[in-house]
Specification:
InterPro entries: Metallo-B-lactamas, NDM-1-like, RibonucZ/Hydroxyglut_hydro, WH-like_DNA-bd_sf. The protein is of the alpha/beta class and about 350 residues long. Helices cover about 35% and strands about 15% of the residues.
């Protein structure tokens, strides 16, 4: 089954066949428009893949959408979250309160959720301001780009690892660890129907945000992880993808290869940009020179911060491949090209 992205107002809950349904849940004020929440049938009650943003309109859409498909939200068995971001995990706690359902996510994201719940918003603000400074943002940009912290999602009851089967009686729903967008992002392979719930890992027309936070970390390589995860998904072959945004599409392997090619080209352009500069560049300078959906001058401050995170991830991938290096002992951090 293949559909196209339409405005949220035109979206409707759908029976996708084979004991799988989709419910569009709005993301207020976000250009993505909505999250596609999936319900997978089992004798013990449906299990949801993701839950949507924590907002009254989203809750009404989720509970009402399930009702229109013949389900009562009070009968939900569990919620398996592809990753901890608020448009995926935000309503999981409310579903649990209404139904007694369990919440499951990968152990790496579960650790992040616990850390978020343990730290006050003031600590987040100080962390973000210092991160922007070390990236090379000036004081004015630092104040504008520092966004408020979303409310942390509910902590999970269960933690998943790569290859684990989700508690879904009569079905085989297996976790496939696909880090990159978040450290604990998972896709979910419904093996008895050969379908893949891809979360944000593989989307039909856009690519997920891959960033490093704080920007100057040198002990992780999320873009490298993401590219390896694309290869893992590609090994599943030309199966149907059920993503969390946009529309359902066939041949996840082909789309994964397109996304890999996109990032390899982006890395080559970034290496060329660094090579043509006489002086090493800060992360903020690199971000301002890269190509985004809008010119840098037109990007809102919060999106500039996200762009810097993505620039940092690409710089780190070049560094991990021996194509770029950071200067030692400088603040803010600066990068220069190495010969390929």
């Amino acid at each position: 089954m293949k559909t196209r992205r339409r405005p949220y107002a035109e979206q409707r809950p759908q029976d996708l066949g084979g004991g799988v349904w989709s419910v569009p849940v709005p993301i207020p004020g976000n250009p993505l428009g909505y999250t596609l929440v999936y319900a997978v049938e089992s004798p013990g009650g449906p299990v949801l893949v993701d839950a949507g943003w924590n907002h009254p309109d989203a809750w009404e859409a989720l509970s009402g959408g399930l009702g229109s498909l013949g389900f009562d939200v009070a009968g939900v068995r569990g919620v398996v979250v592809t990753h901890f971001h608020p448009d995926h995990a935000g309503l999981a706690g409310q579903v649990r309160e209404a139904s007694g359902a369990w919440i499951a996510m990968h152990e790496s994201d579960a650790e992040l959720v616990r850390m978020m719940n343990a730290h006050a918003s003031q600590e987040h603000d100080a962390f973000q301001a210092d991160m922007l400074r070390r990236a090379g943002a000036d004081p004015g940009e630092m104040r504008q780009a520092a966004g408020s912290r979303p409310t942390p999602p509910a902590e999970p009851d269960r933690e998943l690892r790569d290859g684990d089967l989700v508690d879904l009686p009569g079905r085989k729903l297996r976790a496939v660890h696909t880090p990159g967008h978040t450290p604990g992002h998972i896709c979910l392979h419904l093996e008895d129907a050969d379908r893949l719930f891809t979360g944000d890992h593989v989307l039909p027309a856009i690519t997920p945000h891959i960033g490093i936070y704080p920007y100057d970390r040198d002990d992780v390589d999320p873009l490298g992880d993401f590219l390896e995860s694309l290869d893992r998904v590609g090994e599943l072959g030309a199966i149907d993808a059920l993503p969390a945004h946009e529309w359902i599409f066939p041949d996840v392997a082909a789309r994964a290869e397109q996304i890999r090619h996109h990032h390899e080209e982006k890395l080559d352009r970034l290496h060329a940009l660094l090579a043509e500069r006489a002086e090493p560049l800060t992360i903020w300078e690199v971000a301002s020179m890269m190509t985004w959906n809008k010119p840098w001058a037109d990007l809102p401050p919060m999106l500039r911060g996200m762009a810097a995170g993505e620039a940092a991830a690409h710089l780190r991938a070049l560094e991990a491949r021996g194509r770029a290096a950071r200067l030692a002992g400088v603040d803010p951090v600066r990068f220069h090209a190495l010969d390929s």
